[in-house]
Amino acid sequence: MIIILLGAPGAGKGTQSEILQERLDMMHVSSGDLLREHRKRGTSLGKVAESYMTRGDLVPDDLVIAMIVERLAAPDVEHGIILDGFPRTGPQAAALDEALDTKGRRVNAALYINVEHDVLVNRLSGRLTCRLAGHIYHEVFAPPRVPGICDIDGAELYQRDDDKRETAAKRLEVYFDQTRPVIEYYRERGSLCEVNGDQPVEKVSQDLVDCLR
């Protein structure tokens, strides 16, 4: 099986991908990890990708897709792959389908962890960081014992610009503008399965597994 995992920043994709990987005995692969792996190994694809990245340009879709298709041939993905971080746009989804079709493969399911916008903003905007060692807290979901003070080393906690409410809202706006067409693309093809991500972690995991069954 080839599974696409979709969800906005703060939806819990990272947590759920780890759980699904273990429960389904499938390999979790992110497009970012693939790029880093190819650059580290110095492969021909990695060298071409690096030429774009060092200039600050986006790596072309066909290069990322070539890495994905190559990864699908590896022995450790014989039970399937959970793909995270790609496709991000409608054209990328269509291009991935075309490439998979030439190999007799297809995307079997697109799992979408849907969380309300305001909940996502609250999850993203309440993060606090320890100035000394970078320990992470959250004002609501994982608060320190003493407000503004790290439990571990007593250092001051602060909020990075990336974690402020206005920044979080902008990140989500960009995500949904890009990714809504991807969600509709898979919905039209009957392969989208949408679950409520504003539930306990275990319930979200079970709903995702039930979707696949």
List keywords for this structure.
globular, alpha/beta, five-stranded parallel beta sheet, 213 residues, 8 strands
Tell me about the biggest sheet? 5 strands, parallel
- The rough form would be described as globular
Uncertain runs are none
C-alpha-based Rg, rounded:
19 Å
How does this model look, in words?
By secondary structure, the protein is α/β, with parallel strands linked by helices. It is built from 8 helices and 8 strands; from the N terminus they run βαβαααβαβαβββαβα. It has a 5-stranded parallel beta sheet, sandwiched between helices. β5 and β6 (about 135-140) form a beta hairpin. α1 (about 15-25) packs across α8 and α2 (about 30-40) packs across α3 (about 45-55). The radius of gyration is 19 Å and the shape is globular. The model has no long low-confidence stretch (mean pLDDT about 90).
